[in-house]
Amino acid sequence: MGQRTNTATWLPNQQRWQIKVQKDGVRRTFTSAKPGRTGQREANRKADAWLDEGITSTTKRCADVWSEYMISVEAAAGGSYIDQVEKFGRNYILPVIGVRRIGDLSTGMLQDVLNRSYKEGCLNQASRRRSKGNLSRKTLQGIRGVEVSFVKWARQHKYTTLRPEDEGLAVPKGARNKGKKILQPDALRVLLSTDTRVVRGKVEQDENVHAYRVAVMTGLRPGELLGLRVGDVEGNRLHLHRAINRQNEETTGKNENAIRTVVLHPLAAAEIHAQLQQRTCEEERPLRDDDPIFPLKNQQSLYNYWQFYQRCNGIDPPVSLYELRHTFVSMVEDAVSPAQLRRMVGHSRSMDTYGWYSHAVDGRDNAAALAVSDALAEYAPAGQK
Fold it and tell me: Least CB-packed of 21, 65, 241, 357 within 10 Å?
């Protein structure tokens, strides 16, 4: 049955029952002149028939519809997104709605998923690693996004007319923002001044140090670093077209705004060009446009090298590669406008006023790059300022 939440009411002046309903942005009014509850039921039946028009099946269990949805996700998405959707479904969504019939699914039930996940954590009783509640706002936003995506797919395939995105489906207000660690000033100075690590008691050059520095100087995601090719560098501009995800698959990035061009400030440009020189020496030939700038096996390899570098150089507390991105944001957020910062890091929120997809980088980006350089200068060795 369609998702009708109201019922017909009696209009004394017109001597009839009336109900107004909406589907796909279209409003309809249905009436009955029959007296008593018979007329009310008739008006409601007319509304329900229109709401259910085109619906193929309302009796399937949500778990069965979810299985069909996952086939669609697996055919269209990358491995990391597939894993996330499967995890959210298994641990949070299906334990609440899995046994429900798709025709009975309501926004209230989907809200129950969020409310219970917030209070209880993992809802899958069979999970061996159950969280105990207090999920972060970001995780709950991810669960909500998957719920909306699932219902949208079901709507497109004529299983339901439900529109939770228009009906107030929301993350609980008390959800916490996940705490983010950043590289502290003394540790940042170590990173920008120390090129070495200690292996079996011997001090040797860390061949990946430029990757760590570019990460903290630009806010690039780890996958974006690994996706960089020699041909992506054009003077002091870096064209971001691709990323390598945790499953070692090439993608176009985390979101639609990840494809972007950024202007490198002088410190970052110097690190990129030092890495290119290093790569030329390693290959013993001129570099080709399709050669990777940072030729690591996968994200895990880069992560392992970075953790080892931190241990060798006394960086404590250690931070993750992704937290180098957070470090960049914290250092420069007061030096550039929010729109410029979102453009630099390829954030998915709030399309800014002068265009995320601009191929011609204008003067404002050059000015922003210089502002970033000034913000980073206090941490750089004297010869690099």
Answer: 357
